[in-house]
Write a structure and sequence with these properties.
The complex is a heterodimer of chains A (about 210) and B (about 300).
Chain A lengths: L1 H19 L1 H10 L7 H30 L7 H23 L4 H10 L1 H18 L3 H6 L2 H8 L1 H16 L5 H19 L2 H15 L1
Helix pairs in contact in A: 1-4, 2-3, 3-4, 3-9, 3-10, 4-6, 5-6, 6-9, 9-10
Chain B lengths: L5 H4 L8 H11 L23 H5 L13 H5 L9 E5 L7 E3 H5 L5 E9 L3 E11 H5 L10 E6 L19 E5 H5 L4 E6 L2 E2 L9 E3 L12 E7 L6 H5 L23 E4 L9 E2 L7 H4 L13
Parallel strand pairs in B: 1-10, 4-11
Antiparallel strand pairs in B: 1-2, 3-4, 4-7, 5-6, 5-10, 7-8, 7-9, 11-12
Classes of the chains: A mainly alpha (about 210), B alpha+beta (about 300).
Amino acid sequence: MTSSILFKSLPVSLLYCILLIPIPLYFYWGIVNQLGPDPLRFLEHKYGELGLIFLLITLSISPLFKYAKINLVRYRRCIGLVAFYYIVSHICVYFFLDIGLSIDILLSDLQKRYYIIAGFFAFITLIPLALTSNNFALRKLNIKTWNRIHSFIYIAIVLSIFHFILMSKTWTGELYLYTGITIFILILKIKSTKIYKKLSTYSNADISK
Amino acid sequence: MKILKYSDVTPHNLYLNRRKFVEALGLTSLAFVATPTTAKQSYSTSAKPNTIDEITNYNNFYEFGTSKTDPAKYAHSLTTDPWEITFEGVSQNKKKFDLPEILKGKAIQERIYRLRCVEGWSMVIPWIGFPLRDLINELEIDNNAKFVAFETVYRPTEMRGQKRATLDWPYREGLTIEEALHPLTFIATGLYGKELPNQNGAPFRLVVPWKYGFKSIKSITKISFMKEQPYTTWSSENPREYGFYSNVNPNVDHPRWSQATERVIGEGLFGERRKTELFNGYIEEVGDLYKGMDLKKYY
């Protein structure tokens, strides 16, 4: 009994370790000046980009199961939390190193800079998800509430993509890729909503008449 | 009108002595109203230059890709020899010159300039080259020319970034004729005493130290003198964010970020930000060019 629990839970905790290693590793490389001429921007962007990638992976797990029958559901919480830790690291680099703890700059950025506003709200949206990504919360909350909270991830990903688009100078390859994946995931999600299904049955019914 | 050429007013032996050379620049300024009389003898900054490694591995040169490391990876594919530059808006018969023809007789000097990028970072670069005015003064420019337009080479087979429409190729930039004739405005053909690496805009690039870096167009093949303000790439791409002038100015923010301070490349992860200076510290030299101009409107 205990050995089977161990067997089941070990890979997930191992996955945590593997996926989180880059956070201290990149930071160490930054300290020893191995991240190129602009280590601060590199670190800031790397954490942010990895946060976005892990968010997208988290979002892909449900359509992968549904359409491709690949079951990674058991890793979803882990990957989602990893995404959150990268985003926290990203914000720490911005706040502690980039703007040097300046509340003035932070407040002016939050008033004037659209990409920072979008990123800030993306982060705020993710906080309740991170706080309820544990068995305790799952037990305490009813499943409807819990599901509703966790559907915030769709708001977070849209805000994150806006954050990325608004800070970019031009449309780069990565930007096309991440935006494309996001749109694809959103289309799949919309297709699986009740409202969409109802609407499509109605329109199909109309056609068949 | 007889166009006064640089060689008409500068005895050749003056080229040899740097200090005297600068005096010679003062002499030529009689021919051009725009030159400020307060110009310093040395235009270089005393700040410590960045390492060659930093200067050649952190470049914005979208012709080779949008990442800062792309130019170092891919710029070697550009053929920089032979190199031809075409001039338009000049009345002389010969309008195309090979690079050696242009460099012939030019007094090559070093200029250590701080390059302030519109993205909010800066680095210090020891360029090798000559003031653009040395070249302009050799040309027979149309009398009514008020602007100078520059064009980067368009060669998608050698510049992989040009295969994608990241920007409206070829890259184009421009200056007013007064800005172009300013003694600070420099043509760089080298770096750290050596030939200019491809990723830094070889073999012939502009350096305008009081403007944001994107004004300093790389790998130039065409220079045109014209009456109207020319098309310039970034200001056309996004006119709200990038102006024609694009003078370094801590008081005029980029719509998406502050320009008050800059990250100093080479200072490491915990480096302190530097306060950005108006005209990148050249207010004494270039302030007169913009006297009475609303810098918030003409950003």
